[in-house]
Amino acid sequence: MDLHALTQFLTVARLQHLSRAAEELHVAQPSLSRTIARLESELGSPLFDRGGRLRLNDTGRLFRGYVERALGELEAGRRAVAEAPGKGLGTVRLASETFLTFTAPLAAYKRAHPSAEVELHQMPAADMARHLRAQRIDLCVASQPISTEGLESAPLLDEAVWVATSLDHPLAGRTSVSIEELADQPFITARSGHWQRRLLDRLFGGRCLTPKIVCEGDEPSAIAELISAGLGIGLIPAIARQAASHAPVAWIAVDSPDCRRTLTLHWRADSHLSSAARLMRTTITDWNWVTGEPHEP
After folding, report:
1. How many CA atoms lie within 13 A of 58 on its CB side?
2. Averaged over 64-91, what is the pLDDT?
C-alpha cells in the first residue's frame, strides 16, 4: 500500500462520501473507488459499510487510527529536518473553536518571534484530539472536554458565561436572571457541537426545559451583532468583553453555578514540538486571560 492511497483513504473516512472526497482530492470518483477497493483487498477486510450511505465500519475506524499516526510520524520527520539547526524556528499549527479572543496573544507572539510561521485551524472540539494524534496540529485550545488519552493539558481560564441582550431589551436592567426566566426568550446561538450550544442545552435540559432557538450561526462576532440588533439573546463568555470589536450589548449574570466554561490548551504528550510550537505554548500558558495582557514577570 502506498502513501497516496492512505491519504485518500483518510479523506474518504473523514467525509464518508465518495463524490465529495473525490472533489476535494481532485480525482475522478471511479479512480478513488478503485483505490479504496485495492486497499481493502490488500488488508483482506472491508473498511466501509456500503448499505445505502457509505459509512466507516469498526475495522475502518481501527485502521484509520494507525494510518493517522503513521502519516503523522512522517510529517513530524519532515518538519524535524526542516527545523534543523540554522533553519529557523519552524512552524506552529494552532487549532481553536474560534480565534476571536486570540488576537492579542497571537500578535504578541509574532512581535516576539517574527521568523516563526503560524498556521491557524478553526475546528470543533470533537475533531481536535484526532488531529493532535495524527500530528496535523501541534496545539489546540478547547472550551469543552476532549479525549485526553495520549495528550497533555494546561488550564488557561475558568470563567462565567453571561446572558447578553440588546441594550433596550426588557431584561437589560437586571443584574441576574434565572434559567426559568429565559424559557420563552428567543436565543441566538452556535450550531450543535459548539460549546455555547452544548452549555445552553445542558442548562435547559437539567431543568426539563427546551431553549427557543431562532438562529444558529458559526461566527461568534455575528452572533453578538444579531443580539445587539435585538433579534434575540444569547450566552456570551466574560472574555468576550475584551474584544475590541464586540457589539454593544447588556450583560446579565445567570443565576446558575454551572453556567461557566473552562478554556484548556492541549498538545500531544509524545510529540516533538518545534521551537515555534514550544514558544507558542509558553505564550498562551503565560498569558493573563483575565486582563488580556501578558503576565507580569
Report:
1. 0
2. 75
Do the bridges between strand 293-294 and strand 287-288 make them parallel or antiparallel, or are there none, so unpaired?
A: antiparallel
The CA distances from residue 196 to 155, 157, 180, 241, in Å, are 18, 16, 18, 16
Helices within 83-151 (DSSP H only):
103-112, 125-133
Of 98, 105, 88, the closest CA to residue 237 belongs to: 98
Q: β-pairing, 260-268 with 117-122?
A: unpaired
Query: Can you tell me the distance from the alpha carbon of 3 to that of 220, in angstroms, rounded to the nearest whole number?
Result: 38
SS3 content of the chain, % helix, strand, coil (to 5): 40, 25, 35
Query: Positive or negative CA dihedral for 243, 246, 252, 255?
Result: negative
pLDDT-derived band at 83, boundaries 50, 70, 90: low
> Could you read off the pLDDT of 145-183 as tens digits, one per residue?
887 778 899 999 999 999 999 999 999 999 999 999 999
Residue that has been written with the C-alpha cell 426566566 in this structure: 181
Q: At what angle do helices 3-15 and 29-43 cross, to 10 degrees?
A: 110
Instruction: Using alpha carbons, select from 227, 274, 264 the residue that is nearest to residue 247.
Output: 227
Asked whether 143 and 128 are in contact (CB, 8 A), the reply is: no
Q: Retrieve residue 87's grid coordinates.
A: 533553519
- 275/169 Cα distance (integer angstroms): 49
